[in-house]
Amino acid sequence: INAEYMGNPPFSGVSEASICAKVKAMKYSLELSVWDEVSKNCKAFLSKLLTSKENRLSPKDALNHHWIKSAFLPESPCSSMIPTVIKNIKKFNTAQKLKKAVLTYMATQLSEKELAPLRKFFKSIDKNGDGKLSYEEIKTGLKGKANE
Question: What is the pTM of this model?
Fold first, then answer.
């Protein structure tokens, strides 16, 4: 919701590690200038989503939240923001595609000699051999590598 509504992800940082740390600690701010035009109801809704699993709204409760129900009615002040929301969705999607393209480009710049150990490691942790790594495969693989 945040990335779609604001055009930015809710947690920012200079590296993936710093972003992950903020996500784990649930550190975010709704006080930045980008939030000035966002209603209190929307901020309250986002706060109920950006919290621990135990306190987070269920999907059903989120869909029934008063901000969701009122935000997209034709007479809602938010309805005028729909073009902005659509623009922000496209902007966020473009940023994600750019990140993927940059990572792909970086990978193609490695020599076969540099790729060989990475390929070997990937295959060793891809337990089901589907060419994709699940969270569990990554976690187990990295634990095993750390113990070496």
Answer: 0.45
